[in-house]
Specification:
By secondary structure, the chain is an alpha/beta fold. Helix content is 35%, strand content 25%. The chain has eleven helices and 13 strands. The strands form two sheets. A nine-stranded mixed beta sheet has the order 5-4-1-8-9-10-11-12-13, sandwiched between helices. α2 runs antiparallel to α11 (358-368), α7 packs across α8 and α9 (315-328) runs antiparallel to α10 (333-347).
């Protein structure tokens, strides 16, 4: 796991608020699996089942860079803070974040995408190598700089670090023909060997129609779990297992506002119909999550953590990775959604794109799920 910048260690699990809501009745298969088990023991069993699962993530690679400084004085040149730099580090962002999340939870993870032949790309590769993520499908394109998001944080050793500005260097150009060909060939080779495929689309240029057509139908034919976490039009991903949009992404795809429970449920039903997905999990920040499945009533799950939110960055990637692994481990969508909700409640306590270990997630399940 990359170093945490909030002072916690892998074993520091804060006390979690005991706030859960009983989910609607699961499918018949879910009933049979739960017949002799409590909900807690069932979820713990799924978390243990993450180990060794094989996940392929295709999408837009982003280097999240952090520059940390201690405020020293106000500049004479302009009414701005002068910071004395105390730290600088790179964290896997974009599609690399769900990959690292899945890896930290125990899966074997493979990446497909592109980075530039530059310093941010080298730093990103180094962090991924530390995590043991497979990068044979991560291709260099010299003319395309690595997409980088640089966050400037201010705060002393005894103060909470706060983001004061973000600088984005994003290349939205289309992939070169050679790079696109290499990625598609890698996807065709790898999809038969993995348990799940995650599309992580930040609308930076990797997830085009040709990439979707090379990967999704093949994964569907082979019976793989297919999860889509896309900032763009969700209707492009026909027949996926599950979509995990946040509320603004769902609204953008449908061209409608979600203002109450009724409009939320209309949106969920429309997404199921328009995309042919088996399930749609809409994340709603402090409002929790809502799961919609074909032929089942909606499940509305309250947020597992409202008391201690330091940074929501990357929480959606944690949801996508955890939800996918839970499905691969044999969970129902309701079980997968509950685990994803608990996982998101943990990572928002930390600055930047954070991850959970199986031990952390299991401890949170034990604290939150009592029946």
């Amino acid at each position: 796991m990359y170093p945490r910048r909030d002072g916690t260690s892998a074993t520091d699990i804060p006390n979690l608020p005991n706030r859960t809501e009983r989910l609607a009745k699961p499918s018949v298969a879910g009933e049979l699996s739960l017949e002799h088990k409590s909900k807690q023991s069932r979820l713990l069993e799924l978390v243990a089942g993450f180990a060794g699962k094989r996940v392929l993530v295709v999408g837009d690679m982003v280097a999240d860079e952090y520059v940390v400084g201690t405020p020293s004085r106000i500049s004479r040149e302009a009414p701005v803070l002068i910071l004395t730099q105390s730290d600088q580090y790179t964290v896997p962002g974009g599609a690399t974040n769900p990959a690292v999340n899945a890896r930290t939870l125990g899966a074997e993870v493979f990446l497909a995408g592109v980075v530039g032949d530059d310093a941010p790309g080298e730093r990103l590769r180094a962090r991924l190598a530390e995590q043991g993520v497979h990068m044979e499908g991560l291709f260099n394109e010299a003319a395309r700089p690595t997409s980088t998001k640089t966050r400037i944080l201010a705060g002393g050793t005894q103060l909470v670090q706060q983001q004061i500005v973000r600088i984005d260097q994003i290349d939205h150009s289309e992939l070169s023909e050679e790079c696109s060909r290499d990625i598609k060939a890698y996807l065709r080779d790898m999809i038969p060997t993995v348990d799940a495929l995650i599309f992580s689309d930040y609308e930076i240029g990797v997830i085009n129609q040709a990439i979707i057509e090379a990967a999704l139908p093949l994964a569907k034919t082979l019976g793989k779990i297919i999860t889509v976490d896309s900032h763009g039009d969700l209707a492009r991903f026909q027949g996926a297992t599950a979509l995990t949009p946040n509320q603004p992404e769902a609204e953008a795809t449908l061209g409608m506002r979600i203002t109450d429970r009724a409009s939320l449920e209309r949106a969920g039903a429309r997404l199921l119909e328009d995309t042919g997905a088996s399930g749609v999990l809409i994340t709603r920040g402090s409002e929790g999550m809502s799961l919609f499945e074909q032929g089942a009533p909606p499940h509305h799950i309250p947020a597992s953590n409202l008391a201690e939110v330091a940074d929501p960055t990357g929480a959606g990637d944690t949801v996508a990775a955890t939800f996918t692994l839970a499905l691969v481990a044999g969970g129902t969508m309701a079980e997968a959604a509950l685990l994803a909700n608990i996982a998101a409640g943990l990572v928002v306590r930390r600055i930047g794109c954070a991850t959970n270990t199986p031990q952390e997630l299991a401890a949170a399940v034990a604290a939150l799920v009592k029946d």
